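User: structure tokens for Integral membrane protein, please.
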Amino acid sequence: MLTLTFLVKTLIELYVMVLLIRIWMQWSRCDFYNPFAQFIVKITQPIVGPLRRIIPSIGPIDTASLLVAFILTTLKYPVLLLIQVGALSLDPMNLLVGLLSLLKSAGTLVFWVIIIRSLMSWISQGRSPIEYVLMQLTEPMMAPIRRVLPAMGGIDFSAMIVILILYALNYLGMDLFPGLWYLL
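Assistant: Done. Predicted tokens:
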């Protein structure tokens, strides 16, 4: 049962991350002709495409992708409980758990995108199409910090400041929802 639980949880979390990347790419107006962006669109289009006909985007926010991500995070824990215990819990509290899980997934995604962008800046030096998309995604967060705290000695500290802010928000989540935040 642990293997099945791990597989289901991992697949749901990975798909939610891909959906969040799609939302983030539309919000930051990424180049959708980039090969990485095309991969994200193709992997999410079978589910999000039909919903986009019914649920329009609100400004730069892809609401259909956001709805699918929220539904997946809301159903994740009842499905895992069904696998582990054999009981299905349809509690209104699952909506709060789904929202918190979505927020934590978004924070985790931002953290890893910044880490990957920072590592790729040392290796590929701007020649990778993935790095170009990562730059388009993270630049709206890092540019304001860079204006306040410029590079010192050729080292850009804006990524480190964003990561520290994400850590502070994670600790805030632990303080506000002490038992629940660890389970997400």
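User: Anything notable?

Assistant: The first helix runs from residue 2 to 27.
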